[in-house]
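Transposase
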Amino acid sequence: MKMTLKNLTPSPDLSGLSAAELLAVIAGFQQQLALKEEAIQRRDAHILLLEELLRLRRIQRFAASSEKLHQLQLFDEAELEADMDALLAQLPDDLPQTAEAKAKPRQRGFSASLLRERIELTLSDEQKAGASKVFFTKVKEELQFIPAQLKVLEIWQEKAVFERDGEEVILAANRPVHPLGKCIATPSLLGYIITSKYADGLPLYRLEQMFKR
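Tokens:
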């Protein structure tokens, strides 16, 4: 059974062309081929960028939903955001955005629930002399870590002496009730030790070494 191929582009008849004309045709074909190869290379590069961006988004999504100890830490998350921004900057502007990117932009900065301290960088009186107005703009947010600090609480109890029937009667101020009686650790320190050992799995000898430092 013979099959007839239809709608095929006929090959151009080059038999009547001169050598110079043939060279020009070949040069044109080579130029078209080079343009197609360049377009393929750009497409492959965009595919690699999109695959890497998809991988980073999956890492970010896993880190946001996981509560295990091996989840991404804070500085890894910041580096992840920077890598994603760098990849997005390399993509062409004419690529269509996903519905997720249009509907749910990424949050910038730290959570509003964190404790915040405002630090103002002020101009000197000489620098702002003659200005019509002065205002502040927030230029950066930094996350500060305050290591555990130990201090000794000296409990001084006030006492009053009264003379009653020729005898001295001493009245002492009420002392707060400690959950462990004469324990020398404050309730906050006890809570930290219990959380570190039983929730975070930190051995007591490691805690002792940390406190010694």
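The first strand starts at residue 159 and ends at 164.
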